[in-house]
Amino acid sequence: MKKIPMVDLYAQYKTIKKEIDKAIKEVISKSAFVGGEYVDKFEIELAKFCGCKYAVTLNSGTDALYLSLWALGIKPGDEVITTPFTFFATAEIIARLGAKPVFVDINPETYNIDENLIEKAITKKTKAILPVHIFGRQAEMEKINEIAKRHKLLVIEDACQAIGVPVTGNVACLSFFPSKNLGAWGDGGAIITNDEKLAEKVKILRNHGSKIKYYNDEIGVSSRLDGLQAAVLSVKLGHLKEWIKERQRVAKMYDKLLDNKNYVKGHVFHQYTMRVKNGKRDELKKYLNDNGISAMIYYPLPLHKMKPFLGEKCNLPIVEKACSEVISLPIYPELENKKIEVICKKINKLNVKC
Ligand SMILES: *Cc1c(COP(=O)(O)O)cnc(C)c1O
User: Fold this and answer.
1) Residues 56, 199: contact at Cβ < 8 Å?
2) How far is the CA of 158 from the centre of ligand 1 (A)?
């Protein structure tokens, strides 16, 4: 049997080939390569899909986080509360602005920041909370927004794995990295927000600090989305609702066959992640890989254990345990039930404790 990958972007392309090929030809014929009408069109569609007033596209999810924090005034000496169980960029951009990421432990079941531990981490220097909707599951936003309101803090959501989850903070950041739920054919990202001033500010920052071409009012960066990416994303956005449903189908099937309790409504399942106890996780990964089934460890090391963030005293036992036990299984809209059965049979056969 052919190897079962974590994602199959070519299988996805085959289902929308006609639409995509047409869209790409159009961009080329109009030479609308950076910014321009396809980007404008995609921003309108994206805002609508997300139920937000504004979407501003950028050239990565990392820049979406970076420009959000920058535009909201995070500066050297500030503290931003976040989770240690995420991709490096979440904390990297806090540090890049000279601010300090303050890591709070996670909920062992949702893998999201434990909202009950946030208040203890607030100091006079705290300016913002940066929750991540990890693996596509929304963090406890009701409680997080309530805490933020009481302490007058900003809320920046890292929704890079969770397009489709409603925005409830000041701003949410999306990534269109190819393997994300809505993936471009290269790098891409966006912020979505209801804050007009913030949207305007990010638009200026992404374009060298200029609102009018060749009149630069401040220092910015170059972080625009390509027209080709926007055209690809527009086509794919039209299928995203059904693709999310397919991801939920895959997750439900894993839950049933693995006797696992991961499935919750509203989860867009960027990853399907389970735990393996008693130090057997790496054995399971090797066994699956040897049998032609991909499996990945997201994430093997919590951020407070990464070199740039060592030195801070952290007591985060729950995330450290999670990093030693989690394993993510293949999940993508085109994954057939037959293949899920094969994967589950193999896992059950090894008889590891979940
Ligand atoms: C992918 C991802 C990012 C970064 O997005 P890029 O588009 O790769 O820059 C940030 N945070 C999380 C949680 C991600 O999954």
Assistant:
1) yes
2) 8
d(CA 207, CA 212): 10
Could you tell me the distance, in angstroms and rounded to a whole number, from the CA of residue 130 to the centre of ligand 1?
13
Give the Å distance between the CA of 172 and the centre of ligand 1. 12
**Interatomic CA distance for residues 25 and 291, integer angstroms:** 41
Rg of the Cα trace of the chain? 21
The Å distance, Cα 157 to ligand 1 centre, comes to: 12
Distances (CA, A) of 92 to 3, 40, 57: 34, 29, 20
Give the CA distances from residue 317 to residues 84, 134, 158, 304, 306, in Å, rounded to whole numbers and listed in that order: 11, 18, 23, 11, 15
Structure tokens, 7: 């994602």
Tell how far CA 80 is from the center of its chain: 18
d(CA 125, CA 110) in angstroms, rounded, equals: 28
Cα angle 35, 205, 34 (rounded to 5 degrees) comes to 15
Strand, helix or coil at 13? helix
| Ligand 1 pocket residue status of 111, Cβ below 6 Å | no
Q: Which residue has the tokens 């993510």?
A: 328
User: Ligand 1: does its nearest atom lie under 6 Å from the Cβ of 132?
Assistant: yes
Which residues pair with residue 55 across a beta bridge? Answer: 192
DSSP codes of every residue in 31-45:
T--BSSHHHHHHHHH
- Residue 145 Cα to chain centre, angstroms: 19
CA 196 to chain centre: 23
Measure the CA–CA gap between 333 and 253, rounded to whole angstroms. Answer: 13
Rounded to whole angstroms, how far apart are CA atoms 147 and 116?
Answer: 10
Phi/psi for 302 (5° steps) reads: -70, 155
pLDDT of residue 260: 65
Residues 238-277 pLDDT 10s: 999 999 999 999 999 999 998 766 666 668 999 999 999 8
Orientation of helix 9-30 relative to helix 37-50, angle to 10°: 140
pTM above 0.90, yes or no: yes
* Positions in the chain whose pLDDT score sits under 50: none
